[in-house]
Amino acid sequence: MTNQKSHPLQESILYLVKLHLFGLGALTLCRLILLWANMPTEGVDYGLLGRSMLIGLKFDNLIVCYIQALPVIALTVLTMCMMHRPDVRRIVGSCKKAIAWAEGVLYGLVIIIEVANARYFHFFDNHLNYQVTEWFGFAGDTAGMVMQDKTNLWFLLIAVLLIVLFSFVLTTITRRSLSYHYTHDTNTSLSSYLTGAAVCIVVYGLVFIGMRGSFQRYPLKVSFAYYCNKPFYNKLGVNPVFNIIKTAKNGGNKLPDFLAAVSEEEAETYVQAQLSDNVLSAGLSTDSLFADTPCHDRPLNVVLILMESMTRVNLERQYNGQYLTPYLRALRDSSWYWSNAYSAGIHTNNGIVASQYGYVPNFARTMMEVNPNHYTGLPYYLQQAGYHNLVFVTGNPQYDNMNSFWRDNYIHTIYSLYDYDSKAVVNNFGVPDDYMFRWGIDKLNTVDEPFFATFLTVSNHSPYVVPEAYRSRGENDEERIIAYADDAVRQFMTAAKQTEWGQHTLFVLSADHGAQLASPYEMTLPYNEIPVYFVAPGLKWQQYDEPASQIDIFPTALAMLGIPYENTTLGTDLLHGSRRYAFFASNEHLGVSDGEWFWCYGMNSRQEHLYRIGSPEDVKAAYPERTEEMRRYGVCMQRANLERMNQKKTL
């Protein structure tokens, strides 16, 4: 036993710091094991490796902070309460022993997960996630499968050795801490307690920040680890324990009962009967719609604009006798325009995946989850045709896991808040639409190859920042920002058409989703009513009143360009086919409409409704055959749509 002396609180905090650093070291070692077990075949890029390891420290620190949180509070509070007692050493020592025992168990579990993850990553090219709990129902078979692979036994041995080593070092740190003699002051002055309390508050604050994982607006997400176009280095920084926790949030989602009532086979048979010419045709290709136009001496670029919350209803809204969206209204007369189109969902992530990749969301479940599906869609087939894929967003690309999702699904370059002038940022969503559009035009002017560029606007999302020039364009900011958003698109389209690339571009204008405006129906229909425009050189005016869906953008655009593709979605090539109805979802509703009739079902209420659009009267009892037809369409389509996502048939 040493004769070292220190203040009880000082020594307790020093002990906690040592445990924290030791925990970080242990998890870093586990990440090195992950690297060793999954060494890139092309060799290690040490520049990217260094950055991935630094990012990994942030994720590991979050896990360590969660493990340390309760011990930090318990030990510091106990020390504060006991530091003036002669037996403080014994009492605090007992607490340290309990902490060491508890952390030994927790870190042992973490080490097992980390080492198992290194092996799992080898097979699945991703980290462990909540879905592995499904294997628990087949524990015997799973254990047999694992043990039959001798390599897995080596990893099991590595895990055991690491746990033994960790326990030895943890015990050593704790014993040395117990050997200190404490100085204590029998004078319980107020100042000593205030000083100790101030120190504890600082420590608690640091732990809280570590648990949050980020100083940014959003807490740490898996998406934060993605920074380059090499998936391995993007994934290397992610902690598997963190990944399991995040995926567990969606792990309990099951197929809704009203969909499960229809078998997968029945749903697929119905789908093929409805969309037989458009859904499952392998290698579908057409002659380009622009083959005979002067601009077709090279592949047309594609620009997709998803306008934030731009419901179709906005095109009819006025202020003082003036329409809020004069440009979008006028554009209907110089484009192919679908006047009866619907978004797939009501969230931005829904609109992105539906427009680019062709799938309807699983109700409230995000389309861009931590371990997302891999999709083909526009990005994949345009990449195959030699296009460079870019995305422009106004704000933080980590929101909704957009950054990691896109990089996993054939988007090469993402421009965002990280690239713009910080002085241009106006609110928590980043820069205004017109700034992003101007910046994007300048960037596209430098692209030498055919490109597919997606612009995601956001100004029409509260909190609104209305430029002074639009203060007289509406009754309130909600109306004024619509006028601004319309004009920002006008400025972009006008400027783009004056560029060389703009004269060789197919522009697709739509919305990520509609808006939650007043609606007499249980499901807010304006939230799913959107405009869809196709604008290109030589494309004559045409307005279509047939039902259309956001998921039709992918096959229709490729058919117009004459690019071969295989359509495994439920989207329809609107050039060569049509759909009877559009089906779409909100958080807890499934909707079906053809522009005249509207059927919806609420999962919480377990009630279905049928309306004639324009009337608030539920007429399902008066039209049982129509109700049955639309119910069957919606249930079978969504059942087949979700099965393809759940069974990873999206690629």
Average pLDDT reading:
88
- The helical percent reads 40-55%
- The helix/strand class is alpha/beta
CATH architectural type of the largest domain: 3-Layer(aba) Sandwich
Shape: elongated
Looking at this structure, what is the CATH superfamily of the largest domain? Alkaline Phosphatase, subunit A
Q: Counting H and I runs of at least 4 residues, what is the number of helices?
A: 18
How many strand units? 17
**Over all CA atoms, what is the radius of gyration?**
29 Å
- CATH class category of the largest domain: Alpha Beta
Distance between the termini: 65 Å
Spans of at least 5 consecutive residues with low confidence: 278-283
SS strand fraction: 5-15%
What fold name goes in the CATH topology slot of the largest domain?
A: Alkaline Phosphatase, subunit A
Q: What can be said about the biggest beta sheet?
A: 9 strands, mixed
- Provide the number of structural domains: 2
Q: Your description of this structure?
A:
The protein has 651 residues and is an alpha/beta fold. Helices cover 45% and strands 12% of the residues. It folds into two domains: 245 residues, no CATH class; 394 residues, Alkaline Phosphatase, subunit A (3-Layer(aba) Sandwich). It is elongated, with a radius of gyration of 29 Å. The relative contact order is 0.11.
Q: Any key phrases for this structure?
A:
651 residues, elongated, Alkaline Phosphatase, subunit A, nine-stranded mixed beta sheet
Short overview:
By secondary structure, this protein is of the alpha/beta class. It is 45% helix and 12% strand.
